[in-house]
Every structure is written in C-alpha cells, then in structure tokens.
Amino acid sequence: MPVTSREVHLIARPVGEPEPTDFSLVETALPDPGDGQILVRNDWLSVDPYMRGRMNDVKSYVPPFRLGAPMDGGAVGTVIASNAANVPVGATVLHFRGWRDHAVLDASAAQVVDTAIAPARTYLGALGMVGLTAYAGLKEVAPVKEGDVVFVSGAAGAVGIVAARVARHLGAVRVIGSAGGPEKARRVVEEFGYDAAIDYRAGDLGGQLAAAAPDGIDVYFDNVGGDHLQAALDALNTFGRVALCGAISQYNATEPVPGPTNLFLAVGKRLTLRGFIVGDHQHLAAEYARLAASWLRDGTLRTQETIVDGLDNAVDAFLGLLRGANTGKMLIRLGDT
Ligand SMILES: NC(=O)c1ccc[n+]([C@@H]2O[C@H](COP(=O)([O-])OP(=O)(O)OC[C@H]3O[C@@H](n4cnc5c(N)ncnc54)[C@H](OP(=O)(O)O)[C@@H]3O)[C@@H](O)[C@H]2O)c1
User: Fold this and answer.
1) Ligand 1 pocket by C-beta < 6 Å: which residues?
2) Which of 25, 84, 270, 292 is most exposed, with minimal Cβ within 10 Å?
3) pLDDT tens digits, residue range 67-120?
C-alpha cells in the first residue's frame, strides 16, 4: 500500500539569514520498497548548522541542496516495511533521509541502532556524528595533552557539550566554554562540566578569556570563528593547537568576512591551526561509541536536547538553531515517540 510522505523542499537560495519562504512542505507518494530496500517512518530529524552552507550554490565538501527537491540530513526512524533480510520491520535505524516523515531507502544506507544503550534520538547527537566531531577534534586534530587548558566556543551547543567531557577524558586541567547569554553561561558551568564560562554577548570576549585563563590556553576548539578565533589566538600559549570545526558566526554573511587580524601570532607562538570534517575520522567511530556509551552510563556525559514538535515546525527549528534558540542538540520530533 503506497505511503504518502511530507517532505521539506528548498525552493529559493537564502541570501543572509534564511526566510521561511525559502522552504516549502510538499506531499509525495512513495514507491513500495524494492529489493533490499526498507520503508522508514521517521521519528526524529536532525537540523545542523552545516545545512546552511548546503543552501548556497557553491562547491564544498558536500554538494548543495537542489532547488525544488527534498533536503536531506540525519534522521532516526522505525522500519515499517522491509524487503531486506538484515533489517526487519520494527528495527530503529539511523539514516540520512531527513527533512521528511517517511522515506524509502536501501537498507545498506541505514544503520540499525541499539536503543538499549540510549534513546534513539541520542544517535543524532552525543552518540552520533555530533559526538564524534568533538572527539575527533580534540583527540586527533588539536590533540589535548595531560595538563592542558582548553577553550571551546559554542559550549552550550550539541558539539560543545560533548567537547567538555572529551577534553577532561584526554587530561585537560581546565576547560573554558563560551556561550551566548547569562543563562547558557550558567548552565555551561553548572550542568555541562566546564570550569568557567564566557558570555560572549556581554562583550569584551578577549578580556573575559584572559580572566578565565590567566596562564593562557593550550587548545582551542573553534565552532564560531570571527571574534572567537581572534580572542583565542591572543590567548594561546606557545605550541598551542586549534581545531577549526565550524564558523557559525559567518554562515549568514553576505559579504566576505575579514580573517582574524592577529593571525601573525601563529608564527611567533608556533601554533597549529587545522580544519577538519568529521567524515574523515570514521576510524575513531567505534572507539568513541564505546567511550560515549560508558560516559552516558556513568552520568559523566549529559545529553541535552532542544526538541521542536512536528515537521511543520522543522524550518523554524533550523532558523532558531542559527540564532541560538537551542541548548544542546536541536531535534525535531515527529509523532509521539
Ligand atoms: N567540522 C565538522 O565536521 C563539523 C561537524 C558538526 C558540526 N560542525 C560545526 O560545529 C559547530 C557547532 O555545531 P552544533 O551542531 O553543535 O550546533 P550547536 O552549537 O548546537 O548550535 C549552533 C549554536 O551556534 C551558536 N551561535 C549562533 N550564532 C553565533 C554567533 N554569531 N557567535 C557565536 N555563537 C553563535 C548558538 O549558540 P549561542 O546561543 O551560544 O550563540 C547556537 O546554539 C558549527 O559551527 C558546525 O558547523 C562541524
């Protein structure tokens, strides 16, 4: 019996901050699953900052979204019909046909997840790509050593919350996080395991960082770019390391953004600045999954999500993510899971 799916299409390429009119909710009749395929009812959808980049028609590490076609992204759902022996009806699967409520896909493109370890939605956050990003950044890209002082921007976000736990695991003695607003700054310290927080919206980022790290920082995990990278370059100690993970302060920029004016400090301080994409670090996935499962079990890694209900509100959730409406992983819940 064919199923009708509702899916979010990109219908115009945003200039600056995306507008709700750049998107459209479209109904599509799905084919029955063919050989080796499954039909999935999505229960949770992920919205992520990198999706903003895919809305531009530019060459990047991931192709742009096509206009007038469904967007994709991370999702977890329940298999409701299967023509694949290894993925039975009822299984919970992680896959990439997000931004819609149902999907037909090859079973080989879906990963069955173990909901005994953590609720299904956790595989879109701390147990998934998000968590691995924090781990890869601090383990390999800007390796944290015993005794390091670590600074993380976007500290109350999905990656940032995991980064604090990872930094500690790798031996950091002090972990400083920056976030927008006093409430997030409070939670960064009281709930997410940071030693000190900076509210970047309160101004004087450099002064706040110097006060939080009087002996400088050894590692900077950059989710934000711009003023945060500038402040970190000032604060970094000799042979410091920077993991360039994201630059969310620039994703809606309509003009070229000037680089940090103090990049020359990298020479005298012998700094290493390295960009990375989590997909290049899959070899760490099993190791990270084991660690994350144990941290979730012993309570030293807290999952934190901001949940928005319904596909009709998916675009609002994405727009909110870019403005800081989330604490922890921004998720869309479909149905009453
Ligand atoms: N390299 C990779 O492979 C990879 C993989 C995943 C994610 N990322 C990057 O990692 C970063 C975090 O991603 P996430 O999924 O964990 O998102 P997130 O941090 O959960 O959500 C985005 C956060 O960005 C902050 N923000 C927005 N505008 C800002 C600005 N102008 N200045 C400072 N902060 C701003 C907001 O928090 P506040 O309220 O604190 O401002 C917002 O909550 C993003 O840059 C993303 O692109 C990279």
Assistant:
1) 48-50, 130, 133, 154, 156-160, 179-180, 184, 223-224, 245-246, 248-249, 276-278, 321-322, 324, 326
2) 270
3) 999 999 999 999 999 999 999 999 999 999 999 999 999 999 999 999 999 999
Angle at 260 between CA 234 and CA 18, to 5 degrees: 125
Determine the Cα–Cα distance for residues 2 and 32; give it in Å rounded to an integer: 6
CA atoms within 13 A on the CB side of 32: 5
Mean pLDDT value across residues 154-180: 98
Torsions phi, psi for 143 (to 5 deg): -60, 130
In this structure, which amino acid lies at residue 135? Answer: Y
Ligand 1 atom nearest residue 227's Cα: 32
Taking the centre of ligand 1 as the mean of its atom positions, its distance from the CA of residue 224, in whole angstroms, is: 6
**Given strand 196-199, what is the order of strands in its sheet?**
196-199, 174-179, 149-153, 217-222, 236-244, 272-275
Question: Ligand 1: which atom is nearest the Cα of residue 130?
Answer: 6
Q: Token pair of 117, please? A: 């370890």
Q: 51, 223, 273, 327: which to mutate for ligand 1, most atoms within 8 A of CB?
A: 223
CA of 208 to the centre of ligand 1 (A): 20
Return the beta strands (E) in 269-321 as ranges: 272-275, 305-309
* Tokens at 150, concatenated: 């670590």
pTM higher than 0.70:
yes
Q: 286 CB contacts (<8 Å, ≥6 apart)?
A: none
Q: pLDDT tens, 128-161?
A: 999 999 999 999 999 999 999 999 999 999 999 9
Band the pLDDT of 1: cuts 50, 70, 90.
low
Q: pLDDT (tens digit, 9 = 90+) per residue, 306-321? A: 999 999 999 999 999 9
Ligand 1, pocket-test mutation among 132, 248, 319, most atoms within 8 A of CB: 248
